[in-house]
Amino acid sequence: MKKFKAHPSACPIVHTMTYIGGKWKPIILGRLINGAVRFGKLAVQIPDISRKILTEQLKELEEDGLIIRHSYNEKPPRVEYELSEIGRTAIPVLMAMTELGDKMHEAITRHKRGVTQAQ
Amino acid sequence: MKKFKAHPSACPIVHTMTYIGGKWKPIILGRLINGAVRFGKLAVQIPDISRKILTEQLKELEEDGLIIRHSYNEKPPRVEYELSEIGRTAIPVLMAMTELGDKMHEAITRHKRGVTQAQ
DNA sequence: ATAAGCGGTAACGTTTATGTAACTAACAGT
DNA sequence: ACTGTTAGTTACATAAACGTTACCGCTTAT
User: Fold this and answer.
1) Which of helix, strand or coil describes residue A93?
2) Inter-residue long-range contacts of A84-92, CB under 8 Å, 24+ positions, other chains counted
3) What is the pLDDT of residues A18-38, one digit of tens each?
4) Is residue B91 very low, low, confident or very high in pLDDT (cuts 50, 70, 90)?
5) Is residue B74 over pLDDT 60?
6) Does the CB of B18 have a partner CB in chain A at under 8 Å?
7) How do A78-83 and B37-38 pair as beta strands?
8) Which residue of A78, A105, B100, B107 has the fewest C-beta atoms within 10 A of its own C-beta?
């Protein structure tokens, strides 16, 4: 979310959304919690993201200083991404999101069944 | 993020993004943590969101069962929104985002100064 | 010679999200 | 009669985000 227009006067969540608010960023960051991962592996673990978008998002995260890019001069090339110190400050958010995901999905699925089918 | 295409096989964060991944949703939900708030007050507290978008996002949140809409039959109308039980399960995420916002913003600002101006 | 593996990039197209401006109903106050 | 208030809606337009396809350079293995 590069062009996020909102006064943070609203609340600090605005800042959080600016940096990790993209569709894929939390998912990418979540994959890096347990250490450096190479580009190809990220692409496999997040099957629905295109390589172009993955590249873009990684670049943005690197520019913001959330992740560090290690490029090893080998053939074929090897590039790894890992959380920086700043990136690691986001781990509580990522963990909370992980915690919430399945739980909320089940609850909402139940809710929608109840609403649309009226029991 | 209605049309989120991603296998949750990736990780539960995918689900979280589906439901509260919009640009404004976490900010709106954050405003409701401390109890019901009426439409007009939300619009004032989040100055950069247009009323149309606010309406839309609230409707989506209501459809997903994250918030409850109370419409009092008064003139002029009064409508309040509050977190549902499902919505309250997101509070840890919202709190973590609130915690992170300012901290990360400062760190990134420092990082970018260091990177672009090289001291 | 050819193919496969890796980490991309370029050109192009589509979809989703977001924004603006004008309008509504119904009443209360002046 | 006119204005303000509230919570919207409608029509229209734009911008940002995301996606698809094809392609590149380099090396080792077949």
Assistant:
1) helix
2) A85/B107, A86/B104, A86/B107, A86/B108, A86/B111, A87/A29, A87/A32, A87/A61, A89/B100, A89/B103, A89/B104, A89/B107, A90/A20, A90/A29, A90/A66, A90/B100, A90/B104, A91/A33, A92/B96, A92/B99, A92/B100
3) 999 888 999 999 999 999 999
4) very high
5) yes
6) yes
7) unpaired
8) A78
User: What is the spatial distance, in angstroms and rounded to an integer, between the CA atom of B39 and the C1' atom of C11?
Assistant: 44
User: B107, B111, B67: which is closest to A12 by C-alpha?
Assistant: B107
B2 touches strand C (CB under 7 A): yes
B111 near A68, Cβ under 8 Å? no
B101 and A31: CB-CB below 8 Å? no
d(CA A24, CA A30) in angstroms, rounded, equals: 10
With a CB-CB cutoff of 8 Å, which residues 78-107 of chain A face chain B?
85-86, 89-90, 92-105, 107
Query: Does A89 contact B107 at a Cβ distance shorter than 8 Å?
Result: yes
ω into B76 cis (within 30 of 0): yes
What fold, for A13-117? Arc Repressor Mutant, subunit A (1.10.10)
A51-94 residue pLDDT tens: 999 999 999 999 999 999 999 988 889 999 999 999 999 999 99
Sign of the torsion formed by the C-alpha atoms of B49, B51, B57 and B61: positive
Fold of B13-88: Arc Repressor Mutant, subunit A (1.10.10)
